[in-house]
């Protein structure tokens, strides 16, 4: 008994000491963060925006930085960036903006909204200078609105046109003796092509060519407007390979000059009217956010809900759209009398058909109670369009990827793989011919295939009906623009899938107008998990591990890993999903 008491007391003491140490650790970090002085914006400050940073729909907090240096590093969200540029326009201490334009990690629709915010900033009379050692086309897509665009004398300026590539896995599956049993509705529904063919079908080649040229034409049109070069010349410069060096870009007036970093800073000093030996007051947009605070308005509330990532059944994770938490978010916004309107920001290529239907249902119920507006980001297609179509109005950028109204399902037959590669065989009994339908260890029977295809076509019919009801069109017309076909926002407005061009700010203004609000405050959802939750492992997100893997294997190979993970997810049930992720080069 005495031995037991000694062990118990020792264990209890250890737990108490451990809890005290954790408390002191957390208190020390919190104290360091709270005591850290906010950034002070001096007179004649230049705001710097690094386009190589990806501005996500929600702020990205680097909690590891807290442990390392008692400093919480945070990259503002995309919408925060828009608001900060707007704030800088009227901030008497901000004299101009320096765009660091080497690469652009943001999608074309997001870039378009950033570009429009910068154009509005220019109306203040303040300057914008863009500079890059090597400037890609995506970086130039934003940078070309600057008063002056410079590239390093020995740098590279990219001007070759756009391309997009898909990865096909049929050869790999053949070697592994895995037979994908594929079902789909919609001849353009190309998400299953990587499994059944080794190159693009003619339907997919057609739709990809159309939407890629839409985005490219918009890029050339915007360049033409700012650089005063006709689009025909811009096409020819890309197709002929005339731009090999930054000097070539100067010759053809795509950029203003070649300069080294110190020369660019010298020009900024002249614009600021300061001595050439003085130090320029530069502030990153990240630090500017801490200086100006969080001004999200006052008065009645508009609920801004970010729907980002794959649409999945159940709870999901912080980086995707789980049906359960999003239904709950929409339901709370519907019941909350202080919330006068809802804006759903959609950035998703879709996912589970059932999850999409369940979220659509809650959107439709919310619409009966208060205005519901959708703002489409870079991608709002397939399931992403499904959850959008119940809204009162849909806003999209001309470069948004949307549509893809179709359904597919994959049931892999792994019997040959198990037998010939692993030496594993299966046998069993069942009470009827359909008792083990959909199993992965044998080929499907003809009866099973017919039942599964019927199920896919029923979901497709429901999808089309949701679109017809939401867009006030008959299903016969919807069939002509459905079939799984992908549309840009430009074409989507023409065929009636979206209501107007515009970014998130315009969608919010439309929601306020429909709710008849003269002033309003924005409440953003879902909330990000706290430092303590991440420290104690209470959240399910493995963002830090994902970033580590991405750093180790590189962004392109990381995309391949993500696509392989999606193959696994596709076997879980019928999908309303885009083709595999594509990267525009």
TrEMBL record:
This is Signal peptide peptidase SppA. Residues 121-272, 366-517 form the Peptidase S49 domain. It comes from Niabella digestorum. It is an enzyme of class 3 (hydrolase). The keyword Protease applies. Its EC number is 3.4.21.-. The gene is sppA. It is found in: Membrane. Pfam families: Peptidase_S49 (PF01343). GO terms for molecular function: hydrolase activity. The keyword Acetylation does not apply. Belongs to the peptidase S49 family. Keywords: Hydrolase, Membrane, Protease, Serine protease.
